[in-house]
Amino acid sequence: MTKTNKTILLLCTVLLFVPIAAQSLDLTLGARVGLGHTGFYGPDYEKYKDRGGLTYARSALKLGFSGGLYTTLGFLPFLALQPEVLFSISGDTHRNDDTVRTANIHFLEIPVLVKARLTAGPGLASIFAGPTFDIKLGTGKLIVEDTDGGSKVETNLDAEDVNPFLLGVLFGGGYDLPLGPGTLSMDLRYKFGITEVHPDDFNSDNQVRESKVLLTIGYGITLYRSD
Fold first, then answer.
1. Cβ neighbours, 10 Å, residue 4
2. Which residues contact 54 (CB under 8 A, 6 or more apart)?
3. How far, in Å, CA of 165 to CA of 162, rounded?
4. pLDDT single digits (tens) 66-84
5. What CATH fold (topology level) applies to the domain 3-225?
6. CB atoms within 10 A of CB 5
7. What is the DSSP letter of 202?
8. What is the value of pTM for the model shown?
9. Residue of 148, 48, 157, 140 whose CA lies nearest to 94
10. Where are the domains of the chain?
């Protein structure tokens, strides 16, 4: 196929889908909050937990949070693009019989999700996936405390101890239910990091990545719908 033919084929494809997209365009703006478990993972995680003399450490529940704004652009009846801007609390908790150590790190999290939608009952069921871009906010904190509620030491992480930018992948599924003037949305999402949390010179043999499971709920107002 010649270059000219390829160009004509691409143009015809675009012209075919533009009217369909225009007829099904909808735009929603909303807010979302979520809670769940956050932690670190990776081949060096066992060594990471045992650093600083905290031997025989094991993972523990670490509450994660995210909240912010999202917009959903439906450009086909079954497909939408959903970028989000979220404030996120991430980190990790691990412990042994005597000590609990928690890292709290704050990020501005920007997922860009492709969302497949299917009518199910009164609403829309969906699955989604996409990259997420995390920008570090502040330095974060390291909290070390005794399991018996005794001493507690809280220190700021050095600015260079956490990479300023992290890349990850987020995927999950949910349900959107029409409610009042807008839509109530609920989803379960899992995020895993691609880049390391700490720079190489922090501790080159203790590299870990972010992992997070969240249950979120949001409410959006439809700003535009082309019926």
1. 8
2. 94, 96, 99, 101
3. 9
4. 999 999 999 888 899 999 9
5. Porin (2.40.160)
6. 9
7. T
8. 0.80
9. 48
10. 3-225
Pairing of strands 79-95, 99-120: antiparallel
> Tokens representing 192?
């895993």
User: Which two structure tokens, joined as six digits, stand for 103?
Assistant: 């890292």
174-217: pLDDT as tens digits: 999 999 889 999 999 999 999 988 877 666 566 788 999 999 99
Q: Give the CA distances from residue 24 to residues 77, 79, 80, 134, 226, in Å, rounded to whole numbers and listed in that order.
A: 6, 10, 10, 32, 6
Which residue type, as a one-letter code, is found at position 89? I
Nearest to 189 by CA among 219, 167, 209, 215: 215
| Matching residue, tokens 């871009």 | 133
Residue 59 in tokens: 């993972």
Q: Is 180 helix (H, G, I), strand (E, B) or coil?
A: coil
* Rounded Cα gap, residues 169 and 188, in angstroms: 14
